[in-house]
Design a protein that fits this description.
CATH class of the domain at 47-174 and 208-238: Alpha Beta
Strand content: 15-25%
Oligomer: single chain
Distance between the termini: 48 Å
Structural class: alpha/beta
Order of helices and strands: HHEHEHEEHEHHHEE
CATH topology of the domain at 47-174 and 208-238: Rossmann fold
CATH architecture of the domain at 47-174 and 208-238: 3-Layer(aba) Sandwich
Number of strands: 7
CATH superfamily of the domain at 47-174 and 208-238: Vaccinia Virus protein VP39
Largest sheet: 7 strands, mixed
Protein backbone atom coordinates (compact mmCIF):
# COMPACT_ATOMS: atom_id res chain seq x y z
CA UNK A 1 0.00 0.00 0.00
CA UNK A 2 1.32 3.44 -0.96
CA UNK A 3 2.24 5.70 1.95
CA UNK A 4 -0.03 8.64 2.71
CA UNK A 5 2.40 10.56 4.91
CA UNK A 6 5.59 12.30 3.72
CA UNK A 7 8.95 10.56 3.88
CA UNK A 8 12.07 12.32 5.13
CA UNK A 9 12.54 15.19 2.65
CA UNK A 10 15.60 16.86 4.12
CA UNK A 11 17.59 15.69 1.09
CA UNK A 12 16.53 15.16 -2.52
CA UNK A 13 15.30 11.65 -3.27
CA UNK A 14 16.80 9.78 -6.22
CA UNK A 15 15.59 7.15 -8.62
CA UNK A 16 13.60 7.39 -11.84
CA UNK A 17 9.92 8.15 -12.11
CA UNK A 18 7.68 5.80 -14.06
CA UNK A 19 7.39 8.40 -16.84
CA UNK A 20 11.17 8.27 -17.29
CA UNK A 21 10.84 4.81 -18.82
CA UNK A 22 10.85 5.89 -22.46
CA UNK A 23 10.79 2.34 -23.81
CA UNK A 24 8.06 1.11 -21.47
CA UNK A 25 5.53 3.97 -21.47
CA UNK A 26 3.46 4.84 -24.52
CA UNK A 27 0.20 4.51 -26.37
CA UNK A 28 -3.10 5.40 -24.72
CA UNK A 29 -1.57 5.31 -21.22
CA UNK A 30 0.91 8.03 -22.19
CA UNK A 31 -1.76 10.09 -23.96
CA UNK A 32 -4.04 9.90 -20.91
CA UNK A 33 -1.16 10.88 -18.62
CA UNK A 34 -0.26 13.90 -20.75
CA UNK A 35 -3.89 15.05 -20.62
CA UNK A 36 -3.93 14.81 -16.82
CA UNK A 37 -0.59 16.61 -16.55
CA UNK A 38 -1.99 19.49 -18.60
CA UNK A 39 -4.82 19.87 -16.10
CA UNK A 40 -2.47 19.68 -13.11
CA UNK A 41 -0.09 22.27 -14.59
CA UNK A 42 -2.91 24.62 -15.52
CA UNK A 43 -4.45 24.53 -12.04
CA UNK A 44 -1.28 24.44 -9.95
CA UNK A 45 0.74 27.42 -11.13
CA UNK A 46 2.53 26.15 -14.21
CA UNK A 47 1.92 29.15 -16.48
CA UNK A 48 2.28 31.80 -13.79
CA UNK A 49 5.65 30.47 -12.62
CA UNK A 50 7.00 30.34 -16.17
CA UNK A 51 6.05 33.95 -16.91
CA UNK A 52 7.49 35.12 -13.57
CA UNK A 53 10.79 33.43 -14.40
CA UNK A 54 10.75 34.98 -17.89
CA UNK A 55 10.15 38.42 -16.37
CA UNK A 56 13.12 37.91 -14.04
CA UNK A 57 15.33 36.86 -16.94
CA UNK A 58 14.24 39.87 -19.02
CA UNK A 59 15.16 42.24 -16.18
CA UNK A 60 18.51 40.57 -15.56
CA UNK A 61 19.53 40.31 -19.22
CA UNK A 62 18.01 43.49 -20.62
CA UNK A 63 15.84 41.45 -22.98
CA UNK A 64 13.32 43.81 -24.57
CA UNK A 65 11.45 44.36 -27.80
CA UNK A 66 11.30 44.87 -30.60
CA UNK A 67 13.36 41.82 -31.51
CA UNK A 68 13.00 38.15 -32.37
CA UNK A 69 13.58 35.67 -29.54
CA UNK A 70 13.97 31.93 -30.05
CA UNK A 71 12.98 29.72 -27.11
CA UNK A 72 13.75 26.04 -26.57
CA UNK A 73 11.18 24.49 -24.24
CA UNK A 74 13.21 21.47 -23.16
CA UNK A 75 11.37 18.51 -21.69
CA UNK A 76 8.28 20.38 -22.85
CA UNK A 77 5.89 17.42 -22.76
CA UNK A 78 2.87 17.91 -25.00
CA UNK A 79 3.54 21.62 -25.50
CA UNK A 80 1.68 22.97 -22.46
CA UNK A 81 3.90 26.03 -21.95
CA UNK A 82 4.37 27.14 -25.57
CA UNK A 83 1.17 29.23 -25.91
CA UNK A 84 1.89 31.00 -22.62
CA UNK A 85 5.47 31.78 -23.70
CA UNK A 86 4.22 33.17 -27.01
CA UNK A 87 1.64 35.32 -25.23
CA UNK A 88 4.30 36.57 -22.81
CA UNK A 89 6.47 37.62 -25.74
CA UNK A 90 3.64 39.46 -27.51
CA UNK A 91 2.81 41.39 -24.34
CA UNK A 92 6.40 42.66 -24.23
CA UNK A 93 6.89 43.49 -27.89
CA UNK A 94 8.97 40.39 -28.60
CA UNK A 95 8.57 38.22 -31.70
CA UNK A 96 8.93 34.84 -29.99
CA UNK A 97 9.38 31.47 -31.70
CA UNK A 98 9.12 28.36 -29.50
CA UNK A 99 10.56 24.91 -30.16
CA UNK A 100 9.24 22.24 -27.80
CA UNK A 101 11.78 19.45 -27.30
CA UNK A 102 11.17 16.09 -25.69
CA UNK A 103 13.27 12.94 -25.75
CA UNK A 104 10.21 10.66 -25.91
CA UNK A 105 9.13 10.26 -29.58
CA UNK A 106 5.43 9.88 -28.78
CA UNK A 107 5.44 12.87 -26.44
CA UNK A 108 7.18 15.03 -29.05
CA UNK A 109 4.65 13.86 -31.64
CA UNK A 110 1.78 14.76 -29.30
CA UNK A 111 3.25 18.24 -28.86
CA UNK A 112 3.56 18.62 -32.62
CA UNK A 113 -0.09 17.73 -33.08
CA UNK A 114 -1.29 20.14 -30.40
CA UNK A 115 0.83 22.98 -31.78
CA UNK A 116 0.13 22.30 -35.45
CA UNK A 117 -2.07 25.38 -35.82
CA UNK A 118 -0.13 27.59 -33.41
CA UNK A 119 2.02 30.09 -35.34
CA UNK A 120 5.71 30.24 -34.38
CA UNK A 121 5.60 26.96 -32.44
CA UNK A 122 6.97 23.55 -33.36
CA UNK A 123 8.05 20.32 -31.66
CA UNK A 124 11.10 18.11 -32.09
CA UNK A 125 12.33 14.85 -30.57
CA UNK A 126 15.82 15.53 -29.25
CA UNK A 127 17.94 14.99 -26.17
CA UNK A 128 18.98 18.13 -24.27
CA UNK A 129 22.63 17.16 -24.39
CA UNK A 130 22.58 16.85 -28.19
CA UNK A 131 21.45 20.44 -28.86
CA UNK A 132 24.15 22.68 -30.32
CA UNK A 133 25.84 25.44 -28.34
CA UNK A 134 24.19 28.90 -28.63
CA UNK A 135 21.36 27.40 -30.69
CA UNK A 136 18.60 29.43 -28.96
CA UNK A 137 18.22 32.73 -27.17
CA UNK A 138 16.35 31.31 -24.18
CA UNK A 139 15.99 27.80 -22.76
CA UNK A 140 12.87 27.10 -20.71
CA UNK A 141 12.48 24.01 -18.51
CA UNK A 142 9.27 23.35 -16.57
CA UNK A 143 9.14 20.37 -14.19
CA UNK A 144 12.12 18.94 -16.04
CA UNK A 145 15.23 19.54 -13.94
CA UNK A 146 14.05 17.44 -10.98
CA UNK A 147 14.23 14.35 -13.22
CA UNK A 148 18.04 14.50 -12.93
CA UNK A 149 19.63 13.02 -9.82
CA UNK A 150 22.62 14.39 -7.92
CA UNK A 151 25.37 15.93 -10.09
CA UNK A 152 23.36 15.21 -13.24
CA UNK A 153 21.05 18.11 -12.34
CA UNK A 154 23.99 20.54 -12.42
CA UNK A 155 25.14 18.97 -15.69
CA UNK A 156 21.68 19.47 -17.20
CA UNK A 157 21.56 23.07 -15.99
CA UNK A 158 25.00 23.73 -17.48
CA UNK A 159 23.85 22.21 -20.79
CA UNK A 160 20.87 24.59 -20.86
CA UNK A 161 23.19 27.55 -20.24
CA UNK A 162 25.49 26.35 -23.03
CA UNK A 163 22.57 26.32 -25.48
CA UNK A 164 21.16 29.73 -24.44
CA UNK A 165 22.56 32.98 -25.81
CA UNK A 166 20.50 35.15 -23.43
CA UNK A 167 19.61 32.93 -20.49
CA UNK A 168 17.68 30.07 -18.91
CA UNK A 169 14.38 29.98 -17.03
CA UNK A 170 13.41 27.06 -14.81
CA UNK A 171 9.97 26.34 -13.38
CA UNK A 172 10.17 23.53 -10.85
CA UNK A 173 8.80 22.19 -7.61
CA UNK A 174 9.58 23.05 -3.99
CA UNK A 175 10.51 20.02 -1.89
CA UNK A 176 8.49 20.19 1.32
CA UNK A 177 6.23 17.82 3.28
CA UNK A 178 3.08 19.90 2.69
CA UNK A 179 3.05 19.81 -1.14
CA UNK A 180 4.09 16.15 -1.00
CA UNK A 181 1.07 15.32 1.17
CA UNK A 182 -1.33 17.50 -0.82
CA UNK A 183 -0.42 16.04 -4.20
CA UNK A 184 -0.38 12.52 -2.78
CA UNK A 185 -3.88 12.90 -1.35
CA UNK A 186 -5.27 14.74 -4.39
CA UNK A 187 -4.01 12.19 -6.89
CA UNK A 188 -5.14 9.30 -4.68
CA UNK A 189 -8.62 10.80 -4.53
CA UNK A 190 -9.09 12.03 -8.09
CA UNK A 191 -6.85 10.01 -10.40
CA UNK A 192 -6.90 6.35 -11.34
CA UNK A 193 -3.73 6.78 -13.40
CA UNK A 194 -0.89 4.71 -11.94
CA UNK A 195 1.75 7.03 -13.45
CA UNK A 196 0.25 10.18 -11.98
CA UNK A 197 -0.36 8.60 -8.57
CA UNK A 198 3.21 7.30 -8.31
CA UNK A 199 5.14 10.08 -10.00
CA UNK A 200 3.44 13.18 -8.58
CA UNK A 201 4.63 12.75 -4.96
CA UNK A 202 7.95 11.32 -6.14
CA UNK A 203 8.48 14.49 -8.20
CA UNK A 204 8.11 16.57 -5.04
CA UNK A 205 10.59 14.31 -3.24
CA UNK A 206 13.10 14.83 -6.07
CA UNK A 207 12.54 18.59 -6.14
CA UNK A 208 14.48 21.52 -4.71
CA UNK A 209 14.94 23.86 -1.78
CA UNK A 210 16.75 27.21 -1.73
CA UNK A 211 19.87 25.40 -0.48
CA UNK A 212 19.69 23.10 -3.50
CA UNK A 213 19.59 26.07 -5.89
CA UNK A 214 22.67 27.57 -4.22
CA UNK A 215 24.47 24.25 -4.55
CA UNK A 216 23.36 23.74 -8.17
CA UNK A 217 24.54 27.21 -9.15
CA UNK A 218 27.94 26.60 -7.61
CA UNK A 219 28.29 23.16 -9.21
CA UNK A 220 27.29 24.43 -12.65
CA UNK A 221 29.32 27.64 -12.35
CA UNK A 222 26.21 29.78 -12.95
CA UNK A 223 24.63 32.80 -11.29
CA UNK A 224 21.09 31.74 -10.38
CA UNK A 225 18.27 33.79 -8.92
CA UNK A 226 15.20 32.09 -7.55
CA UNK A 227 11.95 33.02 -5.87
CA UNK A 228 8.92 31.17 -4.60
CA UNK A 229 5.85 30.98 -6.78
CA UNK A 230 2.33 29.56 -6.37
CA UNK A 231 1.72 26.68 -5.85
CA UNK A 232 4.87 25.38 -4.16
CA UNK A 233 7.08 26.14 -7.14
CA UNK A 234 10.31 27.95 -7.85
CA UNK A 235 10.78 30.56 -10.59
CA UNK A 236 14.49 30.45 -11.45
CA UNK A 237 16.50 32.52 -13.93
CA UNK A 238 20.06 32.04 -15.14
CA UNK A 239 22.16 34.51 -17.11
CA UNK A 240 25.27 32.74 -18.46
CA UNK A 241 28.60 34.53 -18.17
Amino acid sequence: MARLWPPDLRERHSGPELMDDIAGIGGEELARTLRELRVINRRLGGTRTTTRALDDLARRSGLAGPRTVTVLDVGGGSGDAAPAILAWGRSRGLDVCVTVADVHPETAAAAGERLHDVPAAQAVCVDLFDVETDAFDVVHAALFLHHFDGPEAARALAAMARIARVGVVVNDLHRHPLPWALIRWLTAAFSRNRLIRADAPHSVARAFTAADWRRLGAQAGLALTWRRSWAWRWAVSVVPA
